[in-house]
Each structure stands twice: as C-alpha cells, then as structure tokens.
C-alpha cells in the first residue's frame, strides 16, 4: 500500500485554523522529508521543509513527532506553514484577494535529502480567509474607501476599523478572518488605493472620522463605541484617532509609534508635526540591510510630535515585538503608558513578545525579517526569530479577540471558551 498524507480538517480550512498533518503506511522508522509550498498572487513561491522519522508502526503525526531539522526543528505541528520562506528576496506574504484561498501543496519524500528523495505521497489543501456566512461589502461612501466584513446572523455586532501600515492599498485578510469571530470589521484604505492620494504626505484625521461615523451609524454595528486595530503606521494613526476623535471605545496598537512619523497629523485647527529623521543613525547590517530602528528622534526630545494620548478615554492594548527593528515599539508603548497614567487615565495593557519582529500578523503567516520599505527606499531589517515570532502571532490573535469582546460588549464568555 502506498503512503498517504492525511490533513485534518480535510480539503479546506480557515487560514488561522491549526492543521493536523500525518502520513500513514510508511515503513517502520522510515526517514522522510516533508515539504510545503504555496504561491502568492504575485507568483512568488513560499516553501518550507522538515526531516522526520516514522514510528514503529510506519506512521508519522506532526503533533507527536519532532522535526529533526530543515526549516525548523522540534515539535512544531504548524512549522511547515510559519517557517515558509519566499524565493524572492525581501518579499512579504500578503493575501490580496480574500475571496480566493491560498493553495498549500504538501509532499512526502523518501529520505532526508529534500531535493533528491523519491516522491512518496502528496496532498493539496486550501486555506481560506472567509468563514462560512461572512459577508464582504465594498464601501464607497463619501470619501471613505473600505471593505466591511459582517459575521453571519442578524447582529448587531461589535464594530472595528482595521488599519495597516506603509505601502497603503486595501488589505482585507485580517478583517475577513476577524469577522468570523463575531465582529463587524471594516478594512480601511487611506492612501495608494482607488481615488485616494498616492502618497501619505499629510494625515487628515477628518477622513478617519468619516469612517468611524460610517461604522457607528451602520445598522449591524452595535454602539456606543467602536474598536481600532492598527499595525505599524496604522497603529500610529489609531493612536491619533483615539486621541482626537469621539466614538472609540477600545484600540489595539501593534508595534505602532506614539509620535507622528514622516507626515504631519492634522485635525481641524490642530496639528502634530513629525519627529525628525536622523539619517546618520541608520546602520547597515553585515548582510547589507538597513537597520533604521534608531533613525527617528525620540518624541521626548520633540514633545510637539508626541500624539496627545492623554486626551483619550479609549481603553488600549499594546502588542509589542521586542525585536522590532522598524522603530522602537517597546519604548513607544512604555511612554504612552506613562503619559496616560500621568494624566490620571487608565493604565493600558502592554504585552511584550521576546524575539518577535515588526509585522505581527494573523497566525501562521511566515516571518518577514527583512523587506522593502517604501519610504526608506531600500530593504530594511524588521527583526524577529521565526519560531518566537510564530508563537507571538498565535497569542496576539487570541489576546486581541478577548480584548475586543470585553471592551466592545461582545460574547466574551463564548470567545474565551473557544480560545
């Protein structure tokens, strides 16, 4: 009987679901190599491999068998996904169309030489981004350019605005997955998309206020306030929104800046100027990659650039990668916490992840340790170690759901039980 690959759930799953991968009908103690691959929508190939040994019955279960080397080692049931690396330098995995899945190809090869072993078995598995019943609604209302994802059922649901960082465009994969957890999530574009500005030279909060009001007025969004979820530049903007705008009850800031960066922030007759960029503080790694972590002047030296978080009545959760080299995320979260408390505001929750880098994504996305930075105009170091980063993504995904259910009036008990 030929070996077979067993993947559970069979055939398809949501991207943030764990998989159980097993191989049956091997020879007792047979050495094998497992390979996984997927192509993104730009044609880039992401791959990982690991060496294993079957048990005495000729079975291999990745939940029980440690990898003996390859892209990772040890007991890592999902390592074949989170350890994937691109065939293009400085490339980051993104899902651009959430209506189609990523197709993961799994191969089992005889022996421990991944490029030479005989193919013993293979399987194909689809990883989807829309849970059954989740509705995708394009939004083009006034100036707002976005996509709203609504959970199945009549609602109303806790509402969240989801913001990504530099590069712009409209990324929907986090919003679509989060809608499957009971939230009405609006993935919001703010530049380099449709008829929005191509570059972010200035940040006018009135645009974001329009988006917040749209969500608050939606019949399937429950009030009295909404949540913000922001990563990187999106985290900086989320802090500014929470500081200047009304109607925001809770905000999760993932590796965001507490100062305006590169572009001034305007709201009505007020402004926050950007902190200066100190190019002489940029370093070069031995691999020729720019390390820009110290390039921004401290907002403590430029207090006018410090976003006035003390004005906010929002409840905050800061998620911090302690090996973030894009900027000093841990320092920023700490200073925001100090400033809030100094003004009598609630102490925010800050969760720090050792050896996690800048792009803390949804679970099982591979680490982007180095990548092209549009504003720097060069590849930079984003930081992180693959396994620690993968574990941080798992925990961050759980923590932000618990936080939003608690502070936006969702089904906290249900989500806590599931997580």
Plain-language structure description:
The protein is of the alpha/beta class and 419 residues long. It is 19% helix and 32% strand. It has an eight-stranded mixed beta sheet, sandwiched between helices. It contains seven helices and 26 strands.
Topology:
Blueprint lengths: L3 E5 L3 E3 L5 E5 L6 E9 L5 E9 L6 E2 L5 E2 L4 E2 L4 H4 L2 E2 L15 E9 L8 E10 L6 E7 L2 E7 L6 E7 L9 H7 L4 E5 L14 E2 H12 L4 E11 L1 H12 L3 E7 L10 E3 L2 E3 L10 E2 L5 E2 L23 E7 L7 H14 L6 E5 L16 E4 L4 E4 L4 H22 L4 H7 L1
Parallel strand pairs: 2-11, 14-15, 14-17, 16-19, 17-18, 18-23, 23-24
Antiparallel strand pairs: 1-3, 3-6, 4-5, 4-10, 5-9, 7-8, 10-11, 12-13, 13-15, 19-20, 21-22, 25-26
What structural class do helix, strand and pairing data support? alpha/beta
Rg (C-alpha, Å): 22 Å
Residues in helix, %: 10-25%
Number of strands: 26
Parts with pLDDT < 50 across at least 5 consecutive residues: 412-419
- Summed over residues and divided by their number, the pLDDT gives a mean of 95
- Name the shape in a single word: globular
Through-space gap between termini: 39 Å
Query: What count of helical segments does DSSP give?
Result: 7
Keywords:
419 residues; alpha/beta; eight-stranded mixed sheet; six-stranded mixed sheet; 26 strands; 19% helix; 32% strand; disordered C terminus
Short description, anyone?
With 419 residues, the protein is α/β, with parallel strands linked by helices. The chain has helices at residues 79-82, 173-179, 205-216, 233-244, 329-342, 386-407, 412-418, and strands spanning 4-8, 12-14, 20-24, 31-39, 45-53, 60-61, 67-68, 73-74, 85-86, 102-110, 119-128, 135-141, 144-150, 157-163, 184-188, 203-204, 221-231, 248-254, 265-267, 270-272, 283-284, 290-291, 315-321, 349-353, 370-373, 378-381. The protein is built from seven helices and 26 strands.
């Amino acid at each position: 009987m030929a070996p077979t690959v067993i993947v559970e759930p069979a055939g398809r799953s949501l991207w943030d679901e764990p998989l159980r991968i097993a191989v049956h009908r091997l020879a007792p103690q047979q050495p094998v190599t497992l390979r996984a691959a997927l192509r993104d929508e730009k044609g880039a190939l992401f791959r990982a491999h690991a060496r294993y040994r079957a048990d005495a019955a000729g079975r291999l279960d990745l939940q029980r068998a440690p990898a003996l080397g390859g892209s990772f080692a040890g007991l890592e049931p999902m390592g074949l996904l989170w350890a994937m690396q691109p065939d293009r330098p400085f490339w980051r995995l993104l899902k651009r169309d959430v209506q189609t899945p990523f197709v993961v190809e799994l191969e089992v090869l005889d022996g421990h030489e991944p490029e030479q072993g005989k193919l013993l078995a293979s399987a194909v598995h689809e990883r989807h981004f829309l849970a059954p019943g989740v509705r995708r609604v394009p939004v083009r209302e006034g100036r707002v350019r976005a996509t709203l994802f609504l959970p199945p059922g009549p609602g109303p649901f806790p509402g969240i605005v989801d913001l990504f960082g530099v590069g712009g465009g409209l990324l929907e994969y986090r919003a679509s997955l989060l809608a499957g957890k009971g939230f009405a999530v609006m993935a919001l574009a703010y530049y380099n998309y449709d008829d929005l500005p191509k570059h972010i030279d200035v940040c006018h909060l009135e645009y974001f206020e329009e988006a917040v009001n749209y969500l608050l007025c939606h019949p399937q969004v429950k009030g009295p306030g909404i949540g913000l979820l922001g990563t990187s530049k999106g985290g900086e903007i989320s802090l500014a929104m929470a500081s200047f705008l009304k109607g925001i009850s809770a905000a999760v800031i993932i590796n965001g800046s507490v100062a305006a960066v590169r572009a001034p922030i305007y709201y009505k007759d007020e402004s926050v100027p950007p902190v200066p960029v100190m190019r002489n503080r940029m370093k070069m790694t031995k691999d020729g990659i720019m390390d820009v972590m110290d390039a921004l002047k401290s907002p403590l030296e430029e207090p006018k650039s410090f976003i006035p978080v003390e004005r906010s009545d929002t409840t905050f959760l800061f998620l911090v990668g302690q090996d973030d080299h894009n900027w000093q995320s841990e320092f920023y979260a700490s200073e925001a916490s100090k400033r809030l408390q100094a003004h009598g505001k609630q102490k925010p929750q800050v969760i720090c992840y050792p050896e996690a880098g800048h792009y803390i994504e949804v679970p099982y996305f591979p680490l982007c340790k180095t990548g092209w930075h549009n504003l720097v105009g060069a590849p930079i170091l984003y930081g992180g170690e693959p396994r620690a980063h993968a574990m941080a993504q798992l925990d961050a995904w759980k923590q932000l759901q618990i936080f939003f259910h608690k502070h936006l009036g969702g089904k906290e008990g249900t989500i806590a039980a599931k997580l």
